[in-house]
Amino acid sequence: MSPFTRELLAIGVDRAAMQDAAASFDARDEISIRDALTGLLANARRRSVDVVLADAVVRYLTVAVPADAGRIDELKAVARLRLAELFDADPIDWRLEADWRARGAFLACAMPARLLRALESASSAQRVRIAHIAPLFVRVANETTFKRQAWLAVRVGTHATAACFTGANCVAVRSAPLATGIALSGWVAREAELAATGEHELVLLDADNPSRAATGRWIDPARRDVALLHALARAESEVAA
Amino acid sequence: MSGWLAIDFALRRWTAWLRDPVALLLVIATLVTAALWAMAASNQRAELADAERQLRAEERARERTNETTRSLRAARLTPARARAVNDAIRRLNLPWEAILGALNDAATPQVALLSLDPDPTSGVVRLTAEARTVDAMLTFHRRVQGQPALAGAALAKHELLRGEAGQVRFVLEARWSAP
Q1: Are B20 and B59 contained in the same domain?
Q2: What pTM does this model have?
Q3: Sheet holding A94-98, edge to edge
Q4: Any chain A CB within 8 A of the CB of B13?
Q5: Same domain for B67 and B117?
Q6: CA nearest B22 in A: which residue?
Q7: Which of A124, A141, A165 is opposite residue B19, by nearest beta carbon?
Q8: Is B129 part of a structural domain of the chain?
Q9: Residue that is last in its domain, among B46, B76, B106
Q10: Which of B2, B4, B5 best probes binding to A when mutated, by most A CB atoms within 10 angstroms?
Q11: Cα three-residue angle B126-B129-B132, rounded to 5 degrees
């Protein structure tokens, strides 16, 4: 590992991993999550780590900015209402972050508040600074170049996330379980048709399909965050089986 | 397009840095350095202000000296002029009230005071007077001797006036006491 690369802690639905160590937890129990993360962070070789969240852990939504709203408080209120409406979720139980924009539509993301509290508590106990906490799809989007009109899709294990970007706006997002036997490109094509997003570039990352279909532009899945989350997803599916 | 999604759940509070011992040490070191620098700068400013004040005082003193020198040169104060000035000052400082009071107390109807000539340098007052008789002159002499403001009163000279029966003109000298 480069001396300038931060260590990476990956968190799945009910387990987490860092380096070669992994720990499982009860996602409904904050203390269980905190204990598992504290144990993993005890092995941190650096004092600062990045955290990647599995896309199945978070909730994605798009927020269209109302014509009469532009202040950040108003945007946050609209995003919280959307979160409650789409997922029947109490906003108190979720921590919402977004790519806030004053016009158009933007991508928002919510992570469980108890998971964030457990993470902060564990990092404080181990005196480790958490530099960044972001879900996998956001990390991939932030490291990928694509055209003005594009769908970006990411699948690790049995969960896929796709979003349509038009310039700086995020006009559609889908995040759902998707069996490994179903082609990612076909799923995105159907979602694009449903959302009526028109002509677009297709950019795909599929951890379980390195052979790559002919359709779309494929991102190499040989990444640390994908590898860690893929291992977690496999372990979770084995336990489920 | 490239990555621009500003979505990050990490703590953005400044206190998050306090959890990193290295960052905390750096912050403390920076604060200490800044405080020391500020103290040094403050001392230097105070020293500079003192030096400026001293310089201004020296310039003012030099200016005053130059003005005095210029005034003295312009006045051309010769020894004779200095003596005259000192005499004038001494005359102005004469205890006129005490001298005139003493003479008033010593005066008699038989004696007329003709002139009063004080000499500030020696502190002696010279009286010229006329008396109806020699006895009146001597009486006046004794009365002057009895005045505390005038000491050592002595008749310097006297002469009988021609054509005036018994009248005498005399000069009396006495030293006045310092007030």
Answers
A1: yes
A2: 0.62
A3: A59-64, A105-112, A94-98
A4: no
A5: no
A6: A47
A7: A124
A8: yes
A9: B76
A10: B5
A11: 155
pLDDT level of residue B1 (50, 70, 90 thresholds): very low
Domain C-terminal end among B45, B76, B107: B76
Tell me: do B72 and B101 sit in the same domain. Answer: no
pLDDT per position as a tens digit, A174-216: 999 998 888 898 999 999 999 888 888 999 999 987 656 667 8
Chain A contact for B14 (CB, 8 A cutoff): no
Question: What residues does each domain of chain A span?
Answer: 7-56+113-240
- Domain with residue B155: its CATH number is 3.30.1360.100
Q: How far is B34 from chain A (nearest CA, A)?
A: 26
Per CB-CB distance under 8 Å, the chain A contacts of B19 are: 123-124, 127-129
Domains of chain B: total: 2
Assess if residue B166 is contained within a domain. yes
How confident is the model at residue B2, as a pLDDT? 46
Based on the domain organization, do B60 and B112 belong to the same domain?
Answer: no
Residue B21's φ and ψ, nearest 5 degrees, are -60, -35
> A138 and B5 in contact by Cβ < 8 A?
yes
* Cα angle, residue A148 at apex, residues A142 and A152 outer, rounded to 5°: 50
Strand pairing partners for A51? A9, A133
> Tens digit of pLDDT for each residue in B79-134?
888 888 887 887 777 888 888 888 888 888 889 989 888 888 788 999 999 998 99
To which residue do tokens 């000279």 refer? B157
Asked casually if ipTM beats, i.e. exceeds, 0.90, the reply is no
Q: Is the pLDDT of residue A90 over 70?
A: yes
The closest CB to that of B7, out of A129, A134, A165, belongs to A134
Helix (H) / strand (E) element for A74: namely helix A72-87
- Domain span holding position B43: 11-76
Give the tens place of pLDDT for each residue, A150-173. 999 999 999 999 999 998 899 999
User: Which residue shows structure tokens 């927020």?
Assistant: A63
Residue B146 within any structural domain of the chain: yes
Residue B1 lies in a domain: no
Residues of A in contact with B1 (CB under 8 A): 145-148, 150, 165, 167-168
What are the residue ranges of helices labelled H in chain B? 21-75, 79-92, 96-106, 134-145
Cβ contacts (< 8 Å) between A130 and chain B: which residues?
A: 10-11, 16
